[in-house]
Amino acid sequence: MNTQKNVLAVIMGGGRGTRLYPLTMERCKPAVPLAGKYRLVDIPISNCINSDINRIFLLTQFHTASLHRHIQSTFHFDPFGGGFVDILSAEQTEKSADWYQGTADAVRRNLQHFRSFPHELVLILSGDQLYRMDFRKIIEDHIRNNADVSIAAIPFPASKVEGLGLMRVQDDLAITEFVEKPTDPKVIAGLAVSEKIEKTLHSSTGEKHCLASMGIYVFNRKVLADALDNKMTDFGKEVIPSLLGNKRLFAHIFEGYWEDIGTVRAFFEANLALTQPLPPFNFFEPKSPIYTQDRYLPASKLNKCAIDYAFIGDGCIVEDSALNRCVLGIRSVIRQGCVLNDVVMMGADFYEDDLTCTSNEDAGTPHIGVGRNSKISHAIIDKNARIGDDVSLSPEGKNDGTYDHGIVIRDGVLCAPKGVVVPNGYVL
């Protein structure tokens, strides 16, 4: 199948992103910065491009300004290929005047926009996951199985499937049951794959595996329209279970790295994992690159630093400091004498006129970045944060909640929100 002519991709931008707060205080989930220079939305879009799928719709409704800017400045397709990334925000119509009520409702309201483009299949993706996948494989399986719906599934040990949608499959991977986030151990045990399938898994370790939905679906065009000709609002909870027994549903097993970046803790750990010598997700894969905005920034400058595992974006300036397991975003500035341990710093949107790392603020607002002799650990420093001199920030021994200067501790991780100002000498 020619994926460019027969497949439309639809990326779900998500709801309010409350589990990622305060990172979603001023942006939607797909626009959250990732890995020093990327945005979360770059992952599914890049996977589409690398799979020869170039007609992409992005459905979103909350804090879309930064997402619009990123998409418009990043993804430009040649006029002869017919490719695009089109953002479809919730809009009032004659039929409705409210927000998207769920994933299925969002797709339903935009079917009218999809009809303008010839296609046979619709690929539905999540906008807040970290993975690398060739979608041509699931499409090939979908056609080979004569399926109406195909669901990407990742094998998880039965002891680690909490909070995931699980499916029961036959040996040919036909889906016979779908259970959204089961908690009963007996139910989970009953959903384990057969011995025949277990033997085919590369990740088999002796413990029984269940197949968990990745939130990635391939629908035949007419099947999708018929499945949404109702008031159901969610694919996993309602639409998929309603199709069982009525349509041909198949699982497509994916055994690569996959992480749902739905919480502050998951976001924090996924970023820090990139500092490992052999990270579980490799941004240096030449055959399937991750695309993002080309900013034309200078190379990063590191002067007299002690660095032990770091992932550093473009245009950073670090002066006489110690970094251990840190991810530095574009234009990060760290002044002399600082010690950062387990820190994800998102950087800045712009440079200030005074970039002298050894300067000392006499009074007023600190410069963007981290001031002299500051110590920060187990923290996320959002964009354009201003951390003064002699500041000490750590969540150790403190409960989740909001603290002075808007600092938030969430999932045991200290978060300095976008644009926060922390004065000289502050200790938390």
3D architecture notes:
The chain is of the alpha/beta class and 428 residues long. The chain has two domains: 3-273, Spore Coat Polysaccharide Biosynthesis Protein SpsA, Chain A (Alpha-Beta Complex), CATH 3.90.550; 301-422, Hexapeptide repeat proteins (UDP N-Acetylglucosamine Acyltransferase, domain 1, 3 Solenoid). It has helices at residues 3-6, 42-50, 65-74, 103-114, 135-144, 185-190, 195-200, 221-227, 235-243, 264-273, and strands at 7-12, 33-34, 38-39, 55-60, 84-89, 121-126, 129-131, 149-157, 165-169, 175-180, 209-220, 249-253, 258-260, 301-303, 306-312, 317-319, 322-328, 333-334, 339-345, 369-370, 375-381, 386-387, 392-393, 401-402, 408-410, 413-416, 421-422. Strands 1, 4, 5, 6, 8, 9, 10, 11 and 12 form a nine-stranded mixed β-sheet that branches.
What is the element layout, followed by pairings?
Layout: H1 3-6, E1 7-12, E2 33-34, E3 38-39, H2 42-50, E4 55-60, H3 65-74, E5 84-89, H4 103-114, E6 121-126, E7 129-131, H5 135-144, E8 149-157, E9 165-169, E10 175-180, H6 185-190, H7 195-200, E11 209-220, H8 221-227, H9 235-243, E12 249-253, E13 258-260, H10 264-273, E14 301-303, E15 306-312, E16 317-319, E17 322-328, E18 333-334, E19 339-345, E20 369-370, E21 375-381, E22 386-387, E23 392-393, E24 401-402, E25 408-410, E26 413-416, E27 421-422
Parallel strand pairs: 1-4, 1-6, 4-5, 8-12, 14-16, 15-17, 16-18, 17-19, 19-21, 20-22, 21-23, 21-26, 22-27
Antiparallel strand pairs: 2-3, 6-11, 7-13, 8-11, 9-10, 9-11, 24-25, 25-26
